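User: If only I could read backbone structure tokens as easily as an amino acid sequence. Those tokens are not coordinates but codes from a learned vocabulary of shapes. Could you go through the record with me and say what the backbone is doing? Here is the record:
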Amino acid sequence: MRVLANDGISKAGEQALKDAGIEVLDNRVAQDHIINFINENNVDVLLVRSATKVRQDLIDACPNLKIIGRGGIGMDNIDVEYAIEKGKYIINTPTASSKSVAELVFGHFLSLARFLHESNRLMPLEGDTHFNAMKKSFSNAYELSGKTLGVIGFGSIGQEVVKIGISLGMKVKVLTRKPQTEILSLNFFDGQAVKFEITSSNDMDAFLKEADFISINTPQTNEYIIDAPQFEKMKDGVYIVNTARGGVLNEVALIDFIESEKVAGAALDVFENEPNPELPLLMNPALSLSPHVGGNTVDAQEKIGLELAEQIIKLKNEL
């Protein structure tokens, strides 16, 4: 069996595959050439992340391709149903990067609440000349403890966001299309664990009125979850982080509500026009920004690689 990890795979995952007698190609093939590469090199397994697209043309043109794997949870760059119809096995790693994404959410929340995103920009430029002025302007900060955390989406990432919020002493509200109940366990260094029963709501209006900090953790959507009508119903001074997908939040409306001070600050790890975010977003001082790196930690990549390897090895024995 031959594997093309076109968007990369961790060393641990690569070694696990090699130990199982599976050849791993570490080439990075451009989208325009990947069909020819797969066929010319008799590739059995194609592993991707978000960069490589696996559409119907590739699926049709590569009949010998047996397995398509996605490192991570989102499958919007793969025509999954069509691939399954054509007899391909589809694998992914829905929980491997959840903790990494959740930690980034709070990295942004803490940065926004304490103006770190802005002070990190200005200190190298003006720290020696306007130190006291910046100290005063950045003093109107907030603690997260005691505030209400609103989480949109209650999958594996949403659940990890909730757990971090609880650990910081936040009140928690979860919004889903249909109410659901989950038992979440917070596990500590000394072996102790505390369980929380959390039930989500589908009452958008009540959710928006109560949340001080809103984290969006949903799959890709066909329409905005957060648009002008939703912004209008939020608390004044709300903070928002989107690590889900570009297109779940109206970025133009976001800028308008930042300028009106309804939104105190927002963070975007994903963008509607990715990988070319709009310039007004990049230049706005109320935004904390990152280049779609939610699951890009060494820890998450190692988990992703190992989970993909385990699934491929299992399927190899079944094929």
Residues 298-318 form the longest helix (21 residues). The first strand starts at residue 2 and ends at 5. The two ends are 10 Å apart (CA to CA). The chain has a mean pLDDT of 96.
